[in-house]
Amino acid sequence: VAESFFRAAPPLRDRDRVAGDLAAFVARHAGRGGGGGRLAGVVCVTSGGTTVPLEQRCVRYIDNFSSGQRGAASTEYFLKAGYAVIFIYRRGSKQPYCRFLPEDSFVDLFELGEESDIQVPESHAAVVKTAIRNYRKAIDEGLLLKLPFTTIFEYLQLLQMVGTAMNCLGHQGMFYLAAAVSDFYVPWESMAKHKIESASGPLNMQLNQVPKMLFILRKQWAPSAFCVSFKLETDPDILLQKAEAALRKYGMNVVVANELANYKDVVVMVTSNGRTTVRRPSKEDDVEEQLIDLLVEMHSEHIMQLNQDHQTCTS
Amino acid sequence: VAESFFRAAPPLRDRDRVAGDLAAFVARHAGRGGGGGRLAGVVCVTSGGTTVPLEQRCVRYIDNFSSGQRGAASTEYFLKAGYAVIFIYRRGSKQPYCRFLPEDSFVDLFELGEESDIQVPESHAAVVKTAIRNYRKAIDEGLLLKLPFTTIFEYLQLLQMVGTAMNCLGHQGMFYLAAAVSDFYVPWESMAKHKIESASGPLNMQLNQVPKMLFILRKQWAPSAFCVSFKLETDPDILLQKAEAALRKYGMNVVVANELANYKDVVVMVTSNGRTTVRRPSKEDDVEEQLIDLLVEMHSEHIMQLNQDHQTCTS
């Protein structure tokens, strides 16, 4: 199923450049961590929603709701913990260090001074300057690689490339799969070529299921990586059982369960050892701060455990 | 059909505040233009694509492709021509005076100087400063009112409010309907309450046609306004005939025809007097500059013509 999905998908633009950037990034950060105490690795963070085009020359598409807030915030905390981050994100979604921006107009944030210098109102100055400083640092130190997608086709091809590129990192690699991925799609070859005409009454559509790539990531692309996936539901009654089913089915290390109604306030980390509820302490804090802290700790223990089990392999 | 659409739609948040802002804006600018020569009026610019939710607690939705580039650029040129602009735009789409921004990360544009002052690289400094200056001027002089939408329900409610509020401006009002509006939707009352389950095979959806609100705008909400609508197609063979059909069917003053493949380079203005092709002179120019120039001229002639025809009414 997966092979036919990839065969039929339109090829990624810039595939060779992306492959080169990825190989260089992974090579630069291979061997991060590996000493005692808290270890830092390489994490692939996915963020934002994927789209499903309904026409080949795309005017209409199905989209999954996601601002990218979770992925952008988490990337900041992974960088703070010393990780190198491959950020696979939806074009136009929230970016690390830019989450505080006014929603629609960056010029709302700026004024011109008397000498035509660019000024930020006192109320925002500290936040803006810290953001510019942290972002520059991550870029200048080569700790952040950003790879954009729009469609489900682009997203899954990027995930495959990053998965196979990170395989050589073994258990020091982490996947943090926060993107909202489409469950249904229209196969490329059966898609309307031109804009669907609206004149002739109601529209009937049949959508196929997207192959479950988590399974392939786990089995083929990067089987040793520490894997964290997300389960979002609107109905709290089915959330935790679905998260536990996903944990078993795909062999995840952690499934983070969250509800649409309060996903910024509370998440539940579901593992084979039980559940841990994480709440943000106040509206000024991010729930991701404590979540990433716990995950980094778990990843670190996981690496040390595996290093002890396989001492002959790793020493 | 339209009444049942509005009855079933979820009510607009902030409806009362928006109504107040609108009434004040229109009152402030009523009577703009009306002298001899080139007249300036009030224009409602719609911009960006509308979404159609597939679930009441919305995780998935159908979206229409539109960056908002056309509407944002046109707003700048209308302001330059002296118009007051009501900008109805999709949240997150391109904004007037911010079109030059890096696509995904505003911090890519800024650096910190030695004294932690915010700096823009020399290459971008002039553009950024002009943008901040022009935007501030439009806001400070009260010439720009911005009203955001996401769903087709919000968009059509806003259009109705602006249409009826602008009716008192008579033929000095203009509508420039550049938004990409959904043709199909799922009626709110028949929509799934929770996220659609993906476990049980392919998904079948039936979508209804959105009522043609251009017709109602023209007949009821603001019958005297100068009305410009857009027709976007991917198939050039049917574009102009569809534009002419729309001109007749909805009684538009102008239909601007454009193709997805080259909408930034060339448009065709279709009127009852014939067709005018507008091309941008170079990659450094906007096709909207000449387009707005021609439309402002036509609107101005239209007003003078009507003033002559109905001298007793307007003097």
Describe the structure.
2 copies of one chain form a homodimer. Chain A is an alpha/beta fold and 315 residues long. Chain A has a single domain (2-314), classed as CoaB-like (Rossmann fold), CATH 3.40.50. Chain A has 9 helices and 14 strands. In chain A, the strands form 4 sheets. An 8-stranded mixed β-sheet of chain A has the order 7-4-1-8-11-12-13-14, sandwiched between helices. In chain A, strands 2-3 form a two-stranded antiparallel ribbon. The first copy, chain A, has a two-stranded antiparallel ribbon with strand order 5-6. Residues 34-38 and 311-315 of chain A have low confidence and may be disordered. At the A-B interface, β3, β5, β6, α4 and β10 of A face β3, β5, β6, α4 and β10 of B. β10 (203-209) of chain A pairs antiparallel with β10 (203-209) of chain B, so a sheet runs across the interface.
Task: Write the element-wise H/E pattern of chain A from the N-terminal end onward.
Answer: HHEEEHEEEHEHEEEHEHEEEHH
* Multimeric organization: homodimer
What would CATH call the homologous superfamily of chain A? CoaB-like
- The total tally of domains of chain A equals 1
Report the biggest beta sheet of chain A as strand number plus sense, adding barrel if it closes: 8 strands, mixed
- SS-based class of chain A: alpha/beta
Order of strands, widest sheet of chain A: 7-4-1-8-11-12-13-14
Helix content of chain A: 25-40%
- Average pLDDT score of chain A: 87
Morphology call of chain A: globular
Number of DSSP E strands of chain A? 14
GO molecular function, one term (chains A, B): catalytic activity
Organism (chains A, B): Oryza glaberrima (African rice)
Pfam families (chains A, B): DFP
InterPro entries (chains A, B): CoaB-like_sf (IPR035929), DNA/pantothenate-metab_flavo_C (IPR007085)
